[in-house]
Structures
1.
Amino acid sequence: MKKVFHKIASVCLALIVLLSTVSFTVDSHYCGDILVDSSLFGLVETCGMEVQQNTLSSECNISKKDCCIDEQVTIQGQDALKTIFDKLERDQQLFVAAFVHANMLLFVEPQADFNSHKEYTPPPLVRDVQVLDQTFLI
């Protein structure tokens, strides 16, 4: 149970670090007030209602208001990561050293109990001295 919890916690922490450092952009296309499409990785599909501006006819200059809106939301990741460990301050170095020392035994497999007296048989009991002398430790 402890190993399973440890693996789950490790994966969660790795995902938190990954998601906090990655930047991404969400593109959305609205036609009026209705969301038509949104995309994380590519271009959004349009609804086909965009106004086509014809630059050839300069005598008829009618400008229609476009009902479609393209929205782009950019979420910036964390860029200022401190990855160099030799430039840590003294307090931070002490904390890292204490943390590693305290948690080092979590990753070491426990050794089997070595019993050197396993094959040894005690001598035969000739008489029970404690019962004969009526001396008992309480």
2.
Amino acid sequence: MKIWLFTMCSAVFLLTGCNQEKELTEVSLAEVTRSIFYAPQYVAISEGFFEEEGLDVELTTTWGGDTTMTTLLSDGADIALVGAETSMYVFAQGANDPAINFAQLTQTDGTFLVSREPVEDFQWEDLKGTTFLGQRQGGMPQMVGEYVLKQNGIEPHEDLELIQNIDFGNIPSAFASGTGDFVQLFEPQATLFEEEGIGHIVDSFGTQSGEIPYTVYMAKQSFLEKDTETIEKFTRALYRAQQWIQQEDAVTVAESIEPFFDETSLDVIEQVYIRYRDQGSYATSPLLNEDAWYHLQAIMDEAGELPMDIDYDDLVNREVAEKIINE
């Protein structure tokens, strides 16, 4: 009888222990769009890094900065992946519970300059007198685009015909149908256009504009204060993924994130990943650099879109990232 009771108790203990090990904390994550630009995030999911931290990350694509921020502020998501500028807009409106940036994913702009015709020895002054199909007015890609043009001695509204009234999703089709001599495009569209002979990548807005906190993870201040442990676990898994993509070969990375891009071939995923990796778009750690924060504000100010000067410490929590990096 004693042996039977011991066996039963042992079995109950083992089952309970197993169940406890399988219990994961659910974290809802809203991403602004689906992009190979966010490769480390998908690696953290596919390679099980979040799960190993005890997190069950439920990923939703919310398509657009405004929608993503609304989702976060209305408690539709615990964490949002979106441009850092959105947190500035919310803060400037006097939010009682502002969105705080706690980890960086990408550190450059993700767009490329694509020409309709092949251009040998491209120079930015080649754009003068041409028709340039840019990004939507007020968006971060447009702000970076105009900043880069000005840095290269081009006045966007005087030296070329600038088109900015086409919706983001329709820009590629507009260029493919004949609008514009040059266009500002995200990947993988730029690479696909090259493969199809529609356009030719001649330069990168990311390398031209310098380091900025282009895409970051943010959470409401109340969530950060209430659930710091979850934020730390999330950041630890992200940091592991950021290191992983720098160590693994391109084919391995492409295969890891392929399930998130059903309509993109493995070969294109690999090419796009290499392009972003080689130009330093993927942040190698979650720490958001203070100089990059103010550089972003300078770009926004140049475009007339900066609502107010905002101190780095007001909207950036660096303590979590520093703790994870120093572990």
3.
Amino acid sequence: MTRALRWALVAVAVLVVAVVAVGAVVLWPVFFPDEPDLRVPGGSTPGSVVAASEYGDLTVPMKLVQAKGASVTYMSTDPDGKPIRVTGTSFVPGGTPPQGGWPVVALAHGTTGIDEACAPSRSPELGGLLTIAQSLVGAGYAVAVPDYQGLGAPGVHPYLDSVTAGRDVLDAIRATRTVFGSVSPRWAGYGSSQGGGAIWAANEESASYAPDLRPLGVVAAAPAADVVGLVDKSLAGTLTSDQAPSLQLFIEAAARSHPDIVRDDYRSARAARLWDTLSSCSGAAAAQRPAAIAALRPGDIMPRSTEATTRLTDLLESYALPKRTASAPMLVLFGDADTFIDPAWTRDAVRRACALGDTIESSEQPGKGHADVDISSALPWLRDRFAGTPAPTNCVR
């Protein structure tokens, strides 16, 4: 073996050792992450953490930034103003937090169902929010993902009650701050569909319900802000194939919360036979739900009397937004081809919010429906709010 060959082999060996060493340093947190030090002080006030455990299924990208995750049970407020336990998931980046703590982004999920088993925290994809959460943690934000009441913990889920879900969002932020102890009170939020209404309501409720937090702005995509129009459409037989099952879930959830609501006042005999399947989100019944939805016909889901119509309308109106001036700016993204939430309903909610003095940038996207709204502007918009850049608005005063 020549001297040159020997030196070449030595160089290769050194390079291999270096690569292995670097790889070990990089991959160590992936395979051997530090256990998070979670704080569980207990209590009954809104946002109090009553249970927390390590989130056991962090993605590789989260592990690479040494993120920490926790499954959290915390206190919030039910529609009657009483304390209730709510579950959720929280994340913080690894490393040293900035001065004042990690800024936090709340993620409010869309419709996953109305049963306890429907909680995003019980699904591998966090109700479709895992990729967004992963991106935010990688960008240096703490993340709070509430399940909402009745999802993940005992209780009735008040479906489409945006104010109650908004309080769940605010208390999830409080819980995230408590359980990790390195999270700032400065928060922003993103939500779509049901979550769009929840994050909008959290923005409105923040100043009065959570004065300890500092809202900077929220993005509401295809928000379920005001869906009172479902009643008139049901009576006219013009509900879309997406709206009929949404109204069914609302009626079922309302009947669970209000024993005086009679389900048969809002359904045909055919709908009654399909009812349990339409209400499901797990097990064999959930697999049959698409067929049950396809079997619905105009008039199957609608009030059967004037009294039932009034009751349904009043309840939906009590849930509708806006209710008060928002605490921070909003970006509202929605499509003009949405078959779940009529675009006119969203336009009107934005108009009324602008009249209250809100700072809103509203973008109605041509040809976009409910689930394909372009949200690429959301993260840059949120980043600008944390940077203190004045929020744009296209409200007409």
